[in-house]
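Subject line: Sequence and fold of a protein, written as structure tokens
Area: Proteins and the way their chains fold up in space.
Start of record: The labelled sequence and token lines come straight after this line.
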Amino acid sequence: MSRPSRLQRQILSLYRELLRAGRGKPGAEARVRAEFRQHASLPRSDVLRIEYLYRRGRRQLQLLRSGHATAMGAFVRSRGPTEEPGGGAAPGTPLDDCDSPGNPHNGMGTPETRLGGR
């Protein structure tokens, strides 16, 4: 096996630093491991994506090291038992109600202007 490249060494170093930074924060270690495991199958030739993920990881490391981060998680939208995987509304119901008072758009999809120009 050949020596690891500079980029490989940087990524391994980032992985170790992220694990150390997230040691005291709930969910951080598991999230770091999951993120690295998810992207482990990237082809070596996809250098642009690897470098992008490396920069993103560096930014996350800075956030973890700052005193403001207390935990780490991910936003995941869970589906209900009756919700379909493809969409939001139930069959036969409109996706958005254009005539509702809270909607700032008229039925044509353009913003409506109120009286007085405000």
Summary: The two ends are 69 Å apart (CA to CA).
